[in-house]
Every structure is written in structure tokens, then in C-alpha cells.
Design goal:
Shape: elongated
Oligomer: single chain
Number of helices: 3
Largest sheet: 4 strands, antiparallel
CATH superfamily of the largest domain: Immunoglobulins
CATH topology of the largest domain: Immunoglobulin-like
Structural class: mainly beta
Radius of gyration: 44 Å
Strand content: over 45%
CATH architecture of the largest domain: Sandwich
Length: about 425
């Protein structure tokens, strides 16, 4: 048992681990020195290319593949073969990365693939008009698809669309519309245009009813607009100051105080007619430049408090030569000031905001009196011969015209006066 115990001690365990490591090196040399060799071949048919891997490994484990078909722009991970379609003539850098499934080796192979295809820009499209009960049409130009093609639709009613090769458009009125499509290849510069007349049937429509109300207390310095229109598909707001919005219930910041003619156009679907309403909105400019403040006086220390907003600048004048302007910390809104002399002072607060072209000033008069301090205290001396306690009043006070003193000796006896003595 002692020999077996010694064999299991630490030196023997280290020797056993080294022996197992040497054994694995001798038994699996191909794994420890595994190599991966990436490679591929390809065939070109116009813009279509088929890729096949010629990669090898000595590890004995299967390989994993990752393809990049255009300078890391497009990726594909999966099998040892892949296909890709190129739409433009160019030289493309294709890369294959192989890794064996055990992670023993990795290799990368890159090769250029030359593509020659016609530079095609075809703006042809089809138009399919909906039935007589719905004034809309579906436009399809997917036959001209290229990855770098931009599509610009003009539907003949003043509305354009640049989203995709196919789209649906609703018309608010029947009639004949000249619809045009412009396609543009951003890489080659190729451009083409096609226009067609599309006949949209006329149908009976109901009328929308546009309506809105305003709320000037929703946010300081702004007016909130709420649409009450019975058509909620689309909204167009004109605030009368050069700014517009397509939101349903926008929040608008006017540049300065004044009256503005605000217009709302409410749209429904293609079966309804839009409606327009205009109202005069008065913007007072208050909120961001409201200079109101509160103060609290404690022993001639005045605490000034007023709400601060991030964009607001201010100037606080305490009337005795002390002035505070906008600090670095936007959250500061409480300020304390102590007056050195009694008297009457005028505290003025000026708030300005260049974003809203507004300013406001408010002043308040405060009276500072002599400070009032009152500290009660006394000292005591006991005379053993007379068995009396002599009390010395150490009270300190200022600003008091009269003072009352009351003593309580703790045994039910009391007295009044500035000083006293007590005999037990």
C-alpha cells in the first residue's frame, strides 16, 4: 500500500501526463501537424458563375466553407460548391476560406473572376389597373432588376416613388395619367426612361372632413396639434412659417411670437376625397422664456427657485451688485444669496432663448432686516456655606427690543428676571 501511495503522489502524476502526451504525438502525427489547403475552380456562363472547391486537408476531419463573391461584399457559408450571378462587367475578387471542423487548420484562397455582360438598362414596365371599384394601378419593372439599379417612378399626378422595381399607386381622381419610369445603374452610369398612359376609372367618392385643435401647454415653447379628421390615412400640415409635417399629431416650435395661418389637408383612401381646413393660431412665445421665480427668506438668506430648461439662458441680479449668469450645469435652478446689510433690494431675473427668439424679465422687491439671533445659556455657582446656587445668564441675542426670561429650578420652583440665585 505504501508503494502504491507513493506512485500516486505528484511526481508520478506529472510523469504520467508527459507520457500520454508523447504517446499522442506518436500515434496522431497527422492531427497535430494538420494542414488545410484552400482552392477552387469555376465556370462562367454570361453573368452566372459556378464555383467548386478543390480544397484539401490532412487532418482527417471534414472542412467548413465560407465564400465571398465580391471583395467581402457578399457572403455564403455552406457546401463546397456555390453559384453566383453578376449583373455588371467587371473583375471580381472571390475568396474561399476553409477550416476543418476540429479547428486544427485554416487557409484562404483568393482569385479574380472576369465578367463580361451587356450593359442593360431597361425601363420597361407593365401597368395593371384595378377594377372599376378602386382607382389604383400596380406597376411592375422587375424584368429590369439589377443590384445597383435605382428606380424613379413618376405617376403623373405629381407624386413620385423611389423605393423598388414594383409598386402600387392610388389615384384620387379618375382620368388618364402619363406614368414614367427612370432606371439608373449607379455603377455603370447606364440610364433608360419609359413612359405610358394609364387610364384610371372615375368612381363616386365620399368626402373627408378635416378638423384639428391645438394645445399650447403640452410642451414649453411649442404648440401641439391634434387631428380630429375622420380620414386618417395621410396628413399634410403647413404651419405658416415655412415648415411642414406629415405626422398625424405633430408638435411644432414656432420661430417667434405671432399669428400663423395653419393648414391641414386630411387624406383617406382612394375612395374618399381629401379635405382642407385652415385656422389662425396665435403663438405667444412663452414657456421657454417665462421668467417667473419664487424665493424664500431664512435669516436674511434668500433662496431663489425657478424652472430651467436646457436651451434657456438667464441672468439673476440680486440688487446689491451680485449677479449670476447661466452656469455650466443645466440642472441648477436653486440659488442662495446672503445680504450683508439691511435695506430694500430689487431681485431681477432675465431669461432669453435664441432658438425661439424670445426673452422675459421679472423683478421682485425684498426687504432685508437686521438678523435676529437668540441663544439661551447660563452658568451656575454653588456656595456650600449659604447652600445657595448663583445663576449667571449667558444668553446672547440681537435684534430683540424686549426679552422675557423664565427659570425652572427642577424642584417645582420657578423665577423670572435676567439673573437670579436659588437657596435649597
Amino acid at each position: 500500500m505504501k508503494k502504491l501511495y507513493k506512485l500516486l503522489q505528484l511526481p508520478y502524476i506529472i510523469w504520467l501526463k508527459n507520457a500520454l502526451l508523447l504517446f499522442s504525438i506518436l500515434l496522431f502525427p497527422t492531427v497535430l501537424h494538420a494542414q488545410c489547403k484552400a482552392g477552387f475552380k469555376y465556370t462562367v456562363n454570361g453573368g452566372k458563375v459556378k464555383f467548386g472547391s478543390t480544397s484539401t486537408t490532412t487532418s482527417g476531419f471534414p472542412l467548413k466553407y465560407q465564400w465571398s463573391f465580391d471583395k467581402d461584399e457578399y457572403y455564403y457559408s455552406g457546401s463546397d460548391s456555390a453559384g453566383w450571378t453578376y449583373y455588371d462587367s467587371d473583375t471580381y475578387e472571390v475568396t474561399l476560406v476553409v477550416v476543418d471542423s476540429a479547428g486544427n487548420c485554416r487557409d484562404t484562397f483568393t482569385n479574380d473572376v472576369i465578367i463580361n455582360v451587356p450593359d442593360i438598362c431597361d425601363a420597361g414596365f407593365t401597368a395593371s389597373v384595378y377594377n372599376n371599384n378602386y382607382p389604383a394601378a400596380y406597376f411592375d419593372a422587375t424584368g429590369a432588376y439589377r443590384p445597383r439599379i435605382k428606380y424613379i417612378w413618376s405617376f403623373g399626378d405629381g407624386i413620385t416613388d423611389t423605393l423598388s422595381a414594383n409598386t402600387m399607386h392610388e389615384y384620387y381622381n379618375g382620368g388618364t395619367y402619363n406614368v414614367c419610369l427612370v432606371v439608373w445603374n449607379t455603377k455603370t452610369g447606364c440610364r433608360d426612361t419609359t413612359c405610358k398612359n394609364v387610364i384610371i376609372p372615375t368612381i363616386n367618392k365620399t368626402n373627408c372632413k378635416a378638423e384639428f385643435y391645438t394645445n399650447d401647454s403640452y410642451a414649453p415653447g411649442s404648440i401641439k396639434f391634434w387631428s380630429l379628421s375622420d380620414c386618417q390615412t395621410k396628413h399634410f400640415w403647413d404651419f405658416g412659417d415655412g415648415y411642414t409635417s406629415n405626422e398625424i399629431n405633430p408638435l411644432h416650435k414656432f420661430p417667434k411670437s405671432g399669428s400663423y395661418a395653419v393648414t391641414l389637408i386630411a387624406y383617406g383612401n382612394a375612395l374618399t376625397l381629401p379635405d382642407t381646413i385652415q385656422k389662425t393660431v396665435i403663438f405667444s412665445g412663452t414657456g421657454y422664456c417665462d421668467a417667473e421665480f419664487n424665493y424664500f427668506n431664512f435669516e436674511n438668506q434668500f433662496y431663489i427657485n425657478f424652472p430651467r430648461l436646457q436651451a434657456t439662458k438667464f441672468r439673476l441680479d440680486f440688487g446689491d451688485g451680485t449677479i449670476i449668469t447661466s452656469p455650466d450645469k443645466e440642472s441648477d435652478s436653486v440659488f442662495m444669496h446672503t445680504y450683508k446689510k439691511k435695506g430694500t433690494y430689487i431681485i431681477c431675473l432675465l431669461k432669453t432663448d435664441t432658438n425661439y427668439n424670445c426673452s422675459d424679465t421679472v423683478c421682485k422687491t425684498v426687504t432685508v432686516k437686521d438678523p435676529v439671533y437668540c441663544y439661551a445659556g447660563f452658568s451656575a455657582y454653588f456656595d456650600q456655606n449659604s447652600r445657595s446656587v448663583y445663576l449667571q445668564n449667558d444668553t446672547v441675542f440681537t435684534g430683540l427690543s424686549t426679552a422675557l426670561f423664565s427659570w425652572d429650578f427642577g424642584d417645582g420652583t420657578s423665577a423670572s428676571g435676567i439673573g437670579s440665585y436659588y437657596t435649597n
